[in-house]
Amino acid sequence: MQIEADQVTMVLNGRTIMERESLVCVPGAMTALVGPSGAGKTTLLHLLGLLLRPTGGRVLANGADTTTWGARQRRLFWKNYAAFILQDYGIMEEESVAFNVTMTSSLFRSKVVGDEKRLKAVLMETGLGGREQELAARLSGGEKRRLAIARALYKDAQVILADEPTASLDDANGKHVIELLASLARQGRTVIVATHDDKMMRAADVQHSLARFSDAPKGRGE
Ligand SMILES: Nc1ncnc2c1ncn2[C@@H]1O[C@H](COP(=O)(O)OP(=O)(O)OP(=O)(O)O)[C@@H](O)[C@H]1O
């Protein structure tokens, strides 16, 4: 699924965070949102995932203007197409690995609920093989990040949005996460990543740079 920001402007609490930002994220490619701290990477990622609605401009999903969508259409998008790997990973610490991988599907009563073979396969792929029954709270930071990726794989999401997926990971774990996300893109998914990580940026097919709005050249936003 192609996700596109078309001249998107975002004002939060009276402050302009970004103005007339445009970007096309295509299937089969990993797009990295890059820029200094505070440039709006997380905000743009949330806009592209329909978690935020822009103040101006449009966000398009396969050409459809999502800014006109109501709650029901947005929920369908999250249910059927999107998976998020956000900064807190959205992991339920007191539940098992298996529950965390399958939960979005079971919450939305998707048809893949309870597919043991599929669960095992995605855990193998993410290096969590055989750990179904372990409590998520016992996993390391890197393992939790991979658990969030396992959830996206299990769901077979077309659009994967990840916020700093390699932050605070050691080299080996960071490399594994980058390889997993790059392989999801190679399989034809639309992968969008907000990142500071040079290695993650180099692995991306497209880099989209954001400047802090106040640092932007004069004339921008006027
Ligand atoms: N709810 C909010 N209300 C007001 N300002 C906000 C809100 N959320 C974010 N901002 C501001 O928007 C700007 C962009 O924030 P954002 O988190 O998108 O940047 P970022 O590039 O992801 O930063 P970092 O690399 O530090 O995570 C920042 O100046 C931030 O303070």
From TrEMBL:
<feature type="domain" description="ABC transporter">
    <location>
        <begin position="3"/>
        <end position="222"/>
    </location>
</feature>
<comment type="similarity">
    <text>Belongs to the ABC transporter superfamily.</text>
</comment>
<dbReference type="InterPro" id="IPR027417">
    <property type="entry name" value="P-loop_NTPase"/>
</dbReference>
<keyword id="KW-0067">ATP-binding</keyword>
<protein>
    <submittedName>
        <fullName>ABC transporter ATP-binding protein</fullName>
    </submittedName>
</protein>
<dbReference type="GO" id="GO:0005886">
    <property type="term" value="C:plasma membrane"/>
</dbReference>
<dbReference type="InterPro" id="IPR003593">
    <property type="entry name" value="AAA+_ATPase"/>
</dbReference>
<dbReference type="GO" id="GO:0022857">
    <property type="term" value="F:transmembrane transporter activity"/>
</dbReference>
<dbReference type="Pfam" id="PF00005">
    <property type="entry name" value="ABC_tran"/>
</dbReference>
<dbReference type="InterPro" id="IPR003439">
    <property type="entry name" value="ABC_transporter-like_ATP-bd"/>
</dbReference>
<dbReference type="InterPro" id="IPR015854">
    <property type="entry name" value="ABC_transpr_LolD-like"/>
</dbReference>
<keyword id="KW-0547">Nucleotide-binding</keyword>
<dbReference type="GO" id="GO:0016887">
    <property type="term" value="F:ATP hydrolysis activity"/>
</dbReference>
<dbReference type="InterPro" id="IPR017871">
    <property type="entry name" value="ABC_transporter-like_CS"/>
</dbReference>
<dbReference type="GO" id="GO:0005524">
    <property type="term" value="F:ATP binding"/>
</dbReference>
